[in-house]
Structure formats: structure tokens, C-alpha cells
Amino acid sequence: MNRRHATRRYERLYYVFSKRMERKVAILITVLLILLVVYQLLLLVPGFKKNLTTIDRLEGTPIEGQTMNDYKCC
């Protein structure tokens, strides 16, 4: 009888613990999704995009900014 009581107590504790952890993980996932959306929206603003990513700085001169003198050969 005592062993059965201990098993039920353990199951209750596990249930309570797992519910709390589920709630915390769900909140964490929600916060991360919100941060992802905010970050993606900030990347649409050219001023922020220049400061947030290194790729734009490494790409070089944009095609619309180049002139025909840039294509001279020899």
C-alpha cells in the first residue's frame, strides 16, 4: 500500500512538473517567434539592415550604382 501511494505521489509531482515545463517552453517559443518577426521587420529598413548584417557590407557596389567606366577592359 505504501509503495502504491509513493507511486501515485511521484506521478502527481511529475504531472505538475511537466505542466509547468510545458508552459515555460511554450512561452519561450512564443517569445522567440516574436523576436524573429521583429528582427525580420527590422531587416526591411535599409538603415537597420546595414548595421545588423555583415553581408551587405561584403557584397560590394550595387549594380544600379555602377557606371560604364567600371566595366573597362584592358
From TrEMBL:
Keywords: Membrane, Transmembrane, Transmembrane helix. It comes from the Bacteria. The chain crosses the membrane at residues 25-48. This is Uncharacterized protein.
